[in-house]
Amino acid sequence: MTPLEHLTLEDLCRDATRLLAQHTLLHTQPDGRVTGAPDPRTVRYYTTLGLVDRPTIVDREARYGWRQVLQVLAIKALQHTGLPLARIQERLYARSEAELEAILRAVTERVPPAPAPVPSTLWREVVLEPGLRLSIGESWSASGDLDSLLSRIRAALAAPPPAQGGQAHETR
C-alpha cells in the first residue's frame, strides 16, 4: 500500500474500494445510481462539493492522505443508509478523522452480512388448454403422492379468483 500521506487519486480509489469491501459496503448501495466503488471522477466531484478535502499539490500532482480516504469511506457508508449527498454534506462538514471513523463504524455495525446467493430456478411452462398454464420448477420431481397433487390442483382450480389487489398475476 502507498504511504497514506502521498496517495495519488488512483491510489485513494483503490484503497477506499479495498476498505469498503472489508466493511461489506462495496456492493450494498440501495440506489442503483450510486456505485459502490469510488472512481477518480466521483472523488473529484465530491471534492467540488466540499465532501472531500482538496488534495495537496506535490510536484504539480494531486496527493491525498488518510483523511480523504476516511471522507470517501464515510460518504459511501452514508450513501448505503440511503442519505442523499446534500444530507451527507451536512453530516460530514468539519468532522475530525475520529468522527469520520465513528460514522463508518456506526454504519458498518448495522450492516447485515451479505445474503447468500439465491439459486435461480429454471421453469418449464406447459399449456394444458387455452387460458391454463402449468409452471414446473427444475427441482420438482413426480416422486410424490400423485393423488394428493391432483386434489391440490383441483382445489386451486375451484378456488374463486382473488379480489382486486389480491395475489392475481396478470401477464400481457
Helix content: 40-55%
Assign the structural class, choosing from mainly alpha, mainly beta, alpha/beta, alpha+beta, or little secondary structure.
Answer: alpha+beta
Major sheet: size, sense and barrel closure? 2 strands, antiparallel
What proportion strand?
5-15%
Shape by Cα distribution? elongated
Number of helices: 6
The tally of beta strands, per DSSP, is 4
Strand order of the largest sheet: 1-2
Report Rg. Answer: 26 Å
Explain how this protein is built.
The chain is of the alpha+beta class and 172 residues long. The chain has a domain at 4-110. It is 43% helix and 11% strand. The protein is built from six helices and four strands, in the order ααββαααββα. The strands form two sheets. The protein has a two-stranded antiparallel sheet. Strands 3-4 form a two-stranded antiparallel ribbon. A hairpin with a 2-residue loop joins strand 3 (123-129) and strand 4. Helix 1 packs across helix 3. The longest helix is centred in the middle third of the chain and has 15 residues, at 66-80. The protein is elongated. The mean pLDDT is 81.
